[in-house]
């Protein structure tokens, strides 16, 4: 039986206990990922997107991290209640993950081939020979030439882009049903970034793997994803299909993100937009909307009460008081003017 | 690889040559002479000086020493009559080496286990327990630890023999006495490095592949954490293998340590030089092995 909803996260709360107190990194995030769907989690540093992703594989260090509330259902199984042994079967096998920095994500003292195959050897009881064959296939698939030689080399003999290709090969070697890519192109230069994104797109079409792409770059999202979740201060503030987000964004934070993408068709004199201020203090998150303090349209209610997360059209949800019928017209009609 | 080894060999020979020359000059600069403690008439003393060739010009003495050294002859001891330095080394080194190798193994295995355990239980009871052992091990001097071991396990509990070197039972206390300091040092290094490696991204990668914790420790962590331990191991090995005065005296083990100290006290030129050259040789070899090991463990620092 194919479960339509591959991943279902309900009201996830995840915190870290530090000397300074409890850092509430994720404060009630809910979303679903369908089979083969490409979803982006977008937000600035510290918004909780990586922590959310790592909750899915239980990769957050615990302690100091701990799950406060919520559930994560993967393929109908509740991951939050699973023990280490059960998790080990899911990691790498059903869910693969690519990390932000390919330069440090490979063990420098182990041959690349060994790092690609060790998951196979421990999970599936592959023989060494078959595992190597499979690794060759993967290396070929991610576009590494001379893979038989490369298989025996060490990570320091690979360039950054090549390392990320290897990481993709590692993550996809079991043909997982979900691939989590945590800022896979942040530390790569722009041409390599385009190559890696194209590669992920091609692989996704061939393997029908669902992808959760974590990024702060809406330009990257546009290339790859179908649905976008905008995260701010540990909460989802806007969710929608890619067109909803790019053309009908309703949350001021999403406007800010869109304004901060450099564009070729802009005049030189036009300054690149930025969002003034800093993200909220996650030790003491604000009672109202987390973005209120930086929002130029903020009203009194924004500071006092949390806006509900409600749908405005099918597949487009926003948490913002501006969409309340009583909000002043002037703010509601404000739009970006960039598109 | 061969080229590197050759280069290394030449450098090692040069190092040893410099060591020999400097020590040769230094012992001659020490006030007094080897026979100062002997109660003999001036005439006999003169004869002895002539017999050992100390009346000749210094450069000649040096050249003669080097010539003999090339033949492998370290000369006669000036204190122990009619015994060559080669004989003293051949008699005493096996004891020191046997004690040394055991101590080294004890320190290495114990230190790595202790450090790793501590790192994995960071902030918990086991961690503090391991840290306390390490601090005690580093700070209690060997002459106190040695006597303490003798007193507790030898005299009070009567579990193990108090001294001497006559079988496996006799080795336990001196091995603990000699190895504890190194064990403590290694365990502290290991703990720090393991914790550092634990923060690395590739550990997260390994975990995301679904590997078991044991596999992650053995294949990913240990190898990356052990490099600084290898570094200290070079000089430590040389020092431990070539005898230690305190532990060998406490447990009456006929090793090299005693000879080294008395040779300096007696200004026994040839024995001091012989011992130093022997020790220097070990140090050079141990360091060369360490450099080769680096490359095997971490390909990025492969030098050949």
How many β-strand stretches of chain A?
A: 12
Shape descriptor of chain B reads: flat
| Helix amount of chain A | 25-40%
Distance between the amino and carboxyl termini of chain A: 43 Å
Task: Tell me the total number of β-strands of chain B.
Answer: 0
Reported for the largest beta sheet of chain A, the result is:
8 strands, mixed
pLDDT average of chain B, as an integer? 88
**What series of H and E elements makes up the topology of chain A?**
EEEHEEHEHHHHEHEHEEHHHEEH
* CATH fold topology of the domain at 93-261 in chain B: MetI-like fold
The end-to-end distance of chain B, rounded to whole angstroms, is 5 Å
Which CATH first-tier class of the domain at 93-261 in chain B would you pick?
Mainly Alpha
In the sheet with the most strands of chain A, the strands line up as 6-7-8-3-9-10-12-11
The whole-number mean of residue pLDDT values of chain A reads 81
Poorly predicted tracts of residues of chain A: 335-339
Beta-strand level of the residues of chain B, as a percent range?
Answer: under 5%
The CATH homologous superfamily of the domain at 93-261 in chain B corresponds to MetI-like
Number of helices of chain A: 12
At a glance:
Chain A is an alpha/beta fold. Chain A contains twelve helices and twelve strands. The termini of chain A are far apart.
């Amino acid at each position: 039986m194919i479960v339509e909803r591959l991943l279902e996260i309900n009201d996830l709360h995840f915190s870290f206990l530090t000397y300074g107190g409890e850092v509430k990194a994720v404060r009630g995030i809910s979303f679903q990922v369908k089979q083969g769907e490409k979803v982006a989690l977008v937000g600035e540093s510290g918004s909780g997107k990586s922590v959310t992703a790592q909750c899915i594989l239980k990769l957050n260090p615990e302690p100091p991290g701990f799950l406060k509330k919520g559930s994560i259902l993967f393929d109908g199984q509740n991951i939050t209640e699973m023990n280490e042994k059960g998790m080990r079967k899911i990691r790498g096998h059903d869910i693969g993950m690519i990390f932000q920095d390919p330069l440090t994500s490979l063990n420098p003292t182990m041959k690349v081939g060994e790092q690609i195959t060790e998951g196979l050897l421990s999970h599936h009881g592959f023989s060494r020979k078959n595992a190597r064959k499979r690794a060759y296939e993967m290396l070929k698939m991610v576009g590494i030439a001379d893979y038989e030689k490369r298989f025996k080399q060490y990570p320091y003999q690979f360039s950054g882009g090549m390392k990320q290709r290897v990481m993709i090969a590692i993550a996809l070697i079991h043909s997982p049903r979900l691939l989590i890519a945590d800022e896979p192109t942040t530390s790569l230069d722009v041409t390599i970034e385009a190559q890696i994104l194209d590669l992920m797109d091609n692989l996704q079409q061939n393997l029908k793997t669902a992808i959760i792409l974590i990024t702060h770059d809406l330009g990257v999202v546009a290339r790859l994803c179908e649905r976008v979740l905008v995260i701010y201060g540990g909460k989802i503030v806007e969710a929608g299909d890619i067109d909803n987000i790019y053309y009908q964004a309703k949350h001021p934070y999403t406007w800010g993100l869109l304004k901060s993408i450099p564009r070729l068709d802009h005049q030189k004199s036009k300054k690149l937009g930025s969002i003034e201020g800093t993200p909220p203090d996650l030790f003491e998150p604000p009672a109202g909307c987390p973005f209120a303090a930086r929002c130029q349209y903020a009203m009194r209610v924004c500071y006092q009460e949390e806006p509900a997360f409600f749908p405005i059209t099918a597949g487009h949800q926003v948490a913002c008081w501006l969409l309340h019928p009583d909000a002043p017209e002037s703010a509601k009609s404000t739009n970006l003017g960039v598109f | 690889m061969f080229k590197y080894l050759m280069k290394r060999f030449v450098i090692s020979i040069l190092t040893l040559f410099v060591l020999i020359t400097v020590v040769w000059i230094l012992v001659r600069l020490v006030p007094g002479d080897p026979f100062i403690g002997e109660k003999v008439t001036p005439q006999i003393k003169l004869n002895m000086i002539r017999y050992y060739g100390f009346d000749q010009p210094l450069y000649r003495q040096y050249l003669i020493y080097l010539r003999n050294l090339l033949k492998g002859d370290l000369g006669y001891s000036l204190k122990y009559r009619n015994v060559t330095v080669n004989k003293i080394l051949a008699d005493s080194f096996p004891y020191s080496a046997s004690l040394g190798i055991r101590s080294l193994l004890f320190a290495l295995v114990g230190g790595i286990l202790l450090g790793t355990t501590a790192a994995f239980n960071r902030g918990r009871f086991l961690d503090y327990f391991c840290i306390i052992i390490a601090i005690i091990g580093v700070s209690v001097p060997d002459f106190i630890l040695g006597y303490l071991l003798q007193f507790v396990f030898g005299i009070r509990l009567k579990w193990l023999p108090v001294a001497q070197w006559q079988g496996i039972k006799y080795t336990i206390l001196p091995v603990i006495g000699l190895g504890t300091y190194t064990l403590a040092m290694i365990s502290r290094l290991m703990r720090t490095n393991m914790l550092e490696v634990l923060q690395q991204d590739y550990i997260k990668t390994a975990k995301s592949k679904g590997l078991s914790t044991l596999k992650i420790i053995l294949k990913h962590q240990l190898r990356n954490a052990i490099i600084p331990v290898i570094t200290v191991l070079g000089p430590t090995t040389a020092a431990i293998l070539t005898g230690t005065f305190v532990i060998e005296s406490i447990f009456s083990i006929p090793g090299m340590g005693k000879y080294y100290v008395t040779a300096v006290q007696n200004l026994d030129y040839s024995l001091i030089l012989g011992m130093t050259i022997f020790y220097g040789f070990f140090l050079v070899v141990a360091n060369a092995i360490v450099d080769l090991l680096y490359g095997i463990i971490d390909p990025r620092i492969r030098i050949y």
